Fold each of these.
Amino acid sequence: MAARVGLTGERVVRAAADMADEIGFDRVSVSALARQFGVKDASLYSHIKNVQDLRTRVAVLAVGEMTDRIGAAVAGRSGKDALAAFAHAYREFALRHPGRYAATQIQIDPARAAGSPGHLRSVELTYGMLRAYGLDEPDLTDAVRLLRSTFHGYSSLEATGGFGHSRDTGVSWDRAIDALHVLLEHWPSATPTTPTTPHASTASSASADQEENTP
C-alpha cells in the first residue's frame, strides 16, 4: 500500500492505467483506486477532478505510450517495412495492454487531444507513413481509416477469442499486412462525383479528417 504522502497526479494516473490492464478500463473507479492506495476517496481528489478526468488522463497516457512504441518501431523504415513495423507494434500493445488500449479508443475533448503530444505525434506518424505511398488528401484520410479499422478490428477480435478457425492468427495477420501493402501501392482512383454544398456539420468538422488521433 502506498503512503498518502507519496501520491502525485502522475502516480495516480499510472496506477489507474495498470488497474485498467488488470480488470478492464470500464471498471476503473476512484473508489477502487483509493482502496489500492489504502486511502480515502477524498485523498485522490487533490490530484484528479473526477472519474471522467481520471479516465481521460489514462487515455492521454496510453496514447503517448502506444505512439512511442510505434514511433520506435517505424524509425528509419519506409514502405512495407514501416507498415509492418507499425502494425506489429499496434497489435502487440493492444494485446499486452488491453485496458490501456481500450482507453485509447475513447473520445476525448478536442482541445485536450490537441494539447497532447502523444495524440499529435500519432497523427504525424500515421499520415507520414501513408504519404510514402504517394497518397494525398482525401485518399490519405481514407487510407488512415482503413488501417485503423483493420488494426483495431483484428486486435479486438483476437483479444476476445473471436477467431474460431485453427489457422494461426499471427500468420493471418502477416497476410493481412501483405494485402494492405498491395492495396496501398495500387490505391484506386476516386470516382468523380457531382460537387455538393458541404453540410454544416461536415464543414464544422474539417479538422476531424484527422479524427484518427490514435495510431
Amino acid sequence: MTGLRTIRRHAAAFGRFAGLGTAVTLAASTALVLLSHRIPWMAANALTTVVSTVLATELHARVSFGHGRPGVAVHLKSAATMAAGWLATSAAAGSLALLRPGAGVVLQQAVYLSATALVGIGRYLVLRLAVFADRAPGVPAGDTGSRAAYGAVA
C-alpha cells in the first residue's frame, strides 16, 4: 500500500507542477505580448522570463512541493533548470529550421511543444529529486521519522 501512496503523492505533485507551470507560461505569454507594444521585444522577453521564473519557483515550492518560501539558492537552482530548458527547446527549434527550412507553423509548434513537454518532465524530476528532495516541509534536516509521517499523509 505504501508504494501506491507514493505514486499518488508524486502524481498529485506532478499535476500541480504541470498546472501551475502552464498557468504561469500563459500569463507570461500574455504579458510578453502586452509589454512588447511598449518596450523592445527582447527587453520584454527578458523581463517576463525573469518574473515568470521567480513566480513559478515560488508557486512550485509552496504548492507543488509543499516546502514553503524558497530561498535564494532554490531560486538559482530553479533558474538553472529554466536555462537548460530554454537551451533544449531552442536546440529543437533550431534543428528543425536546419533540417526542414520551410517547415510550416503546425510542424514548428509540434516540435516546440514536444520539446517543451519533455523539458517540463525533466525539470519536474530535477526539482523533485534534487532541489526539493532535502526534507519534507516543516521537518528539520535529518528528522526521518517526521519525514516518513509527512509522506504517509501527503
